[in-house]
Design goal:
Blueprint (H helix, E strand, L loop, with lengths): L10 H42 L2 H27 L3 E4 L4 E8 L2 E8 L7 E4 L6 E2 L7 E3 L6 E3 L1
Antiparallel strand pairs: 1-2, 2-3, 3-4, 4-5, 6-7
Helix pairs in contact: 1-2
Length: 149
């Protein structure tokens, strides 16, 4: 866990990561679907095992499940290391920590959206539309100092 660090995103930084995150979420969901398929195969084999000894096949499927689980954990860690928070893998709901109106908050994105369109304060489940009047963390290009815009 020491590789995970707190990061605050500007809207531009968060939006620039969306294609990579979308691809990673798709990989995770595809791998999860593969796991579900293998679990269904194991259930069928388990019923057969009692009668005709398919124990070896079940062990092979168990190894396959462990491999898929390891892949998902690795993909999950790669997202966490970026500093973002994945709220729901299937929906593709991702939050990017930021400073909004001087308080801790999140830029909130759904995988079905082209860009980030919502935000919410930390601990507040009310998601609000992103508007120009909201002051979000940004970096001054002149001196790389953090400020609010």
């Amino acid at each position: 866990m020491d590789r995970i660090k707190l990061k605050f995103f500007t809207l531009e930084e968060a939006n620039s990561l969306l294609p990579e995150i979308r691809e990673k979420l798709q990989e995770i969901n595809d791998t999860k679907d593969n796991m579900v398929s293998v679990i269904q195969q194991v259930h069928l084999l388990r019923h057969k095992a009692f009668f005709n000894g398919t124990r070896k096949q079940i062990l092979e499927k168990a190894r396959e499940l462990i491999r898929y689980q390891s892949e998902i954990e690795g993909m999950h860690m790669s997202l966490m290391e970026k500093g973002l928070v994945v709220r729901d893998y299937e929906q593709g709901l991702v939050d990017f920590p930021t400073i909004i109106e001087g308080d801790l908050g999140y830029l909130s994105w759904l995988c079905s959206e082209d860009t980030i369109k919502h935000w919410h304060f930390t601990g507040d489940g009310e998601i609000k539309p992103l508007e120009e009047t909201v002051h979000i963390l940004r970096l001054n290009k002149d001196d790389n100092n953090i400020s609010e815009n």
